[in-house]
Amino acid sequence: MPEAFGQYKRCYGTRRLRVELQAQGYRIGRQRLRSAIRCHGLRAI
Questions:
Q1: DSSP characters over 11-33
Q2: Tens digit of pLDDT for each residue in 1-45?
Q3: Sequence spans of domains, the chain
Q4: 22 φ, ψ to 5°?
Q5: Three-state DSSP class for 44?
Q6: Against a cut of 0.90, is the pTM above it?
Q7: Cβ neighbours, 10 Å, residue 33
């Protein structure tokens, strides 16, 4: 997940990142994604 976040130069929020991850075959909801981003200490610009 941090790789996908960094790939887009931290400009993707949870909505766009979730769509991208689902296209790659991951099943994840926005709230869980938000928690995961926060857990890794990442913040969108």
A1: ---HHHHHHHHHHTT----HHHH
A2: 667 777 777 777 888 889 888 998 999 999 999 998 889 888 777
A3: 2-39
A4: -65, -35
A5: coil
A6: no
A7: 20
**Two structure tokens written together for 18:** 């979730």
Place of tokens 């949870």: 14
Residue 37 buriedness (CB in 10 A; 0-12 / 13-18 / 19+): buried
Find where tokens 């790659």 sit. 24
Both tokens of residue 28? 């994840």
For residues 4 and 13, give the distance between their C-alpha atoms in angstroms, rounded to a whole number.
Answer: 11
Give residues with Cβ within 8 angstroms of 39, minimum separation 6: none
